[in-house]
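re: the backbone from monday

yeah here it is again, tokenized this time
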């Protein structure tokens, strides 16, 4: 590994669970979080299934430990982020003093758009406090204020690869000596804007999505927040922190092909994977599991499958798309799946997907459809977004074991 970054904490709120423990249980059980729209006010409520976090905003306030009166100005994105970040901090064992000097890198595609839509429809929302929730960086600002984080903070948005790029940005902050500890991840809430937008592209499935299946017919949207604590060796040693695993390799590339479609030969995805492997000092055969981007659209799955074949040939590692259980959480997807990848690695478990029946003819790739215990040393996670944004992360144990 070339300058790996330590991961000491993970936190998540997703359609399949409110924390890492319940999410892992749902993953291994193949328990889907995709279903009828319950909390989003939309004319499509009975049309498109989604992966919705199973809480109203009022319920999220309670989970986040915020009273209803002071919490009325917080967006759904901020509330989900706070829940996930608190869990990651607790697992990492960060004290208030250590937390103060942390950096925060948050990623999203629509930020607090849910609150913006409420303000647009409700003329009584006139307070400036509501206005402050509109900028994309509101979530990062709010989390820092709530938790007393005084270090570097920023918000990234690169479509569906946003969460992965947040983790890369965090790793570079550590490698370049700008920060010793960084909390990084992504969040996105379901909102009318994304639901209507993806419907206009005609890539939403009216049934449960079927990634990498020959009958795939589109994606299901999702939501959630996933955050990880990344630390330098110096920070880990000074705190005596337990290391879960390491971010050993990463890369982002661009197809420069189309606004919303992946290149037919998977060029950008191929380069992201090969460059990530190079940065980790690994050969393709050392990867034990791939958490694929796998949205369930015709173009995306075929393009990614071709790229995987180009990298791994006939010896493709076990892979699966956890979006079959969570839906596609857009700017949060890569962060959710980074947490899932860490859970797979630390529990030596291949995560399954559901809804698969027959492989895509052009690639013949067959995903994992049942949770399987196995020894894992390295896990690769792909995330590809609109505009040709491609990102690959590799998580590793140290010499095959935890530090």
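seq for it, each position gets an aa:
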């Amino acid at each position: 590994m070339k300058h790996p970054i330590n991961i000491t904490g993970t936190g998540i709120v997703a359609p399949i669970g409110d924390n890492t423990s319940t999410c892992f249980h749902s993953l291994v059980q193949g328990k889907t979080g995709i279903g009828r729209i319950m909390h989003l006010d939309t004319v499509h409520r009975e049309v498109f299934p989604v992966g919705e976090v199973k809480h109203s905003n009022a319920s999220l306030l309670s989970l986040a430990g915020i009273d209803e009166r002071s919490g009325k100005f917080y967006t759904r994105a901020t509330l989900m982020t706070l829940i996930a970040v608190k869990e990651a901090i607790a697992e990492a064992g960060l004290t208030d003093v250590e937390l103060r000097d942390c950096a925060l890198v948050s990623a999203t595609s629509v930020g607090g758009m849910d609150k913006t839509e409420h303000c647009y429809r409700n003329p009584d929302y006139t307070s400036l406090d509501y206005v402050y929730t509109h900028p994309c960086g509101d979530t990062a600002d709010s989390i820092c204020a709530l938790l007393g984080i005084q270090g570097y903070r920023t918000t990234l948005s690169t479509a569906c690869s946003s969460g992965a790029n947040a983790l890369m940005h965090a790793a570079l902050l550590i490698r370049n000596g700008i920060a010793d500890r960084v909390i990084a991840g992504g969040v996105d809430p379901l909102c009318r804007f994304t639901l209507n937008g993806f419907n206009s592209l005609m890539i939403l499935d009216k049934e449960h999505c079927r990634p990498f299946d020959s009958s795939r017919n589109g994606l299901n949207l999702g939501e959630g927040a996933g955050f990880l604590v990344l630390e330098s060796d110096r920070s880990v040693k000074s705190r005596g922190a337990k290391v879960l695993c390491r971010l050993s390799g990463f890369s982002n590339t661009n197809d420069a092909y189309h606004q919303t479609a992946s290149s037919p030969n998977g060029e950008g995805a191929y380069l992201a994977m090969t460059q990530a492997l190079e940065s980790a000092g690994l050969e393709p055969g050392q990867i034990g599991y791939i958490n694929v981007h796998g949205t369930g659209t015709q173009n995306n799955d075929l393009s990614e499958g071709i790229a995987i074949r180009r990298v791994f040939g006939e010896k493709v590692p076990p892979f699966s798309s956890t979006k079959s259980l969570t839906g596609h959480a857009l700017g949060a997807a890569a962060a959710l799946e980074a947490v899932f990848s860490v859970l797979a690695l630390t529990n030596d478990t291949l995560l399954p997907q559901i809804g698969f029946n027959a492989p895509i003819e052009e690639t013949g790739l067959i995903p994992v459809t049942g949770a399987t215990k196995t020894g894992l040393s390295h896990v690769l996670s792909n995330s590809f977004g609109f505009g040709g944004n491609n990102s690959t992360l590799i998580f590793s144990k140290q010499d095959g074991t935890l530090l």
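The longest strand covers residues 245-254. The chain has two domains: 5-239, 247-396.
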